[in-house]
Design brief:
The protein has a single domain, classed as Spore Coat Polysaccharide Biosynthesis Protein SpsA, Chain A. The chain has nine helices and seven strands; from the N terminus they run βαβαβαβαβααβααβα. A seven-stranded mixed β-sheet has the order 3-2-1-4-6-5-7, with helices on both faces. The protein has 260 residues and is an alpha/beta fold. The two termini are 26 Å apart. Helices cover 37% and strands 13% of the residues.
Length: 260
């Protein structure tokens, strides 16, 4: 706990057998009250490893996608009483030791969302991020900052912390079940007026770390630009994209987490 706030770490997993233990071992358990893993029908022994470590483990009966995985993670964390939820990839690409710093920024009351940025401090290229991914990251981030009126260092990190009220408010059921989910969720938070902070985070690129291929990266890039365009259209009052709906029916509900 931090200042009476219950802290949960959620691990959206897919074929993370080789890296899960290293990731879990570095999660600061003196601060983190709950660790939840959702396995998206992995073909390896991710579930067995998770359960051997004592992690609360949920499993999709079929592969539903990265975005659907996160929806289940967040619903479970809310159902178990989390006040702050940190989403951490179990592929050991990001440093788990930064969880207290990210959670503290939310507990302080200054921020509703905190991003672990690979760009601040130059950690991306030092950690082995491929040049084409780095260039795409910078170009997409520049376009998004222009369209949504922010000054974030990146929109594409897989290391994020959210306050409970953000997770309860956003219409996450309208977000994609694929990789663009991350970007849509963050853009929803900006649209709703939540405050966003960043911390510098070193990153590691190695064989076992998850990464989407070039073709899926291109698809993701177009999805990112479409999301930013929808934001701009909404703010100009030219349309009301469903992505930014304020309907209670499109928010998370505990039933999403009932997958053993």
């Amino acid at each position: 706990m931090l200042a009476g706030n219950r802290i949960a770490v959620v691990l959206p997993a897919y074929n993370a057998e080789k890296t899960l233990r290293r990731t879990y071992d570095e999660i600061p358990r003196d601060v983190v009250d709950d660790v939840i893993l959702t396995d998206d029908a992995s073909a390896d022994d991710t579930v067995a490893v998770a359960r051997s470590l004592g992690i609360l483990t949920l499993r999709h009966d079929r592969n539903r996608g990265y975005g659907a995985n996160q929806k289940t993670c967040y619903a479970a964390a809310l159902a178990r009483g989390a006040d702050v939820v940190v989403m951490l990839h179990p592929d050991y690409q990001y440093s788990p030791t930064l969880v207290p710093a990210m959670a503290s920024m939310i507990v302080s009351g200054h921020y509703d969302v905190v991003l672990g940025s690979r760009i601040l401090g130059g950690g991306a290229r030092k950690g082995g991020m491929p040049l084409y991914k780095y260039v795409a990251n910078r170009a997409l981030t520049a376009a998004q900052n222009l369209l949504v009126g922010q000054k974030l260092s990146e929109y594409h990190t897989g290391y994020r912390a959210w306050s409970r009220r953000v997770l309860e408010r956003l219409p996450l059921l309208n977000c994609s079940d694929d990789f663009v989910f991350d970007n849509q969720m963050l853009t929803q938070a900006i649209h709703a007026g939540f405050s966003i902070g960043e911390v510098s985070c070193p990153t590691r690129y190695f064989a076992e770390a998850s990464s989407i291929n070039f073709s899926r990266s291109v698809t993701y890039g177009f999805g990112v630009l479409a999301t930013a365009a929808r934001y701009r259209v909404s703010k100009l009052g030219l349309a009301e994209p469903r992505l930014f709906s304020d309907s209670v029916q499109e928010r998370l509900h505990p039933g999403l987490a009932q997958l053993a």
